[in-house]
Amino acid sequence: MQQQIRRISVIALVLAAYALGWAVTHVLSHPAPAWTALTDFCVTMPLIGAWFARRTPKLALRRALLLFGIGLLAARLLLPVETLPMFGAFANLRTFGMAILGLFEIGAVLAMLRMLVASRADENPELLIEANISKRFGAHPAAGIFKAEARMWLHLLSRRREWKFPGVMHFSYHRRDGMQSLLFGFIIVILLQIPFEHLLLSLWHPAAAWCISALSLYSVLWMIAHYRAVTRRPISLEDDRLIIRNGVFGDVAVPLNALARIAPLRASIDMHANRRVPGQRRIGSNGNLLIEFRQPLALASIIGSRNYNSLRFGADTPQRLVDAVNARLVQINALT
Predict the structure, then answer these.
(1) pLDDT-based confidence at 106, cuts 50/70/90?
(2) What's the order of all strands across the beta sheet hosting 235-237?
(3) Buried b (16+ CB within 10 A) or exposed e, 97-108
(4) Least crowded by CB within 10 Å, which of 181, 202, 253, 295?
């Protein structure tokens, strides 16, 4: 409840500041200098957002950067361009950033293709790529982003049929709740939407229309890769851990000795099954399995790691997975 109040407070403060900046610069007959509104947009609001997350420095930094970007965009749209010559420099910086991003994407694709060609038929190129990224970046948060990007291009371009992952047992999850059919439907809808969206936006701002259309096409590529990856990347039970995969997104490795309980969930019976639970990590939607940890466990994500008390995810055969994990736990306890 307190987190929701904080989020609502931040949103309210941001909207109030933007409304005040609009009034100062456009409604008053003698508008104040644009620098005052720009300070509210790009300094005051990020500081307020960071203050609400001050107990978690990384979260505070991410929130401040996000609000700074939103504030800069709002200032660019609301404030007259001639009042702040610095916007011209920001435009050049934006072009430079887009060029760097394009070069990064090209480099990622070329590196992925090189490893894909070099891999043998009995090797999983994804494991080779991830090992190479981990070797270069270690545990840095950027490694998770690079791995997700590499997985996206790999599963988008590769036609390999066999994808071997380590583990004693593997479990699929793409048939649950019609996940793959739902992804296919989203892909079709977005592809049909892009031409009309581009036409309408071009009437307002041609450059914005091209940018949004490019982002929409990029999101379609991600969804196509995810559509393919959910059938290729299973949940794997290894000797001492459970690897939970979710398409092209980050894997979660759960040590078996950290489990307090694993049990299936029945959403139709449990009325609170789909509600957010504090301290619970959710992978996918409508998960039908719940893992509770003996103590808070750090679980990795694309942008870092956080401590969680439980984990909720889904599988096509939840009871089979539970039985396999419990059987493996019995074997581990017998050995110790």
Answers:
(1) confident
(2) 169-171, 235-237, 241-246, 249-255
(3) eeeeeeeeeeeb
(4) 295
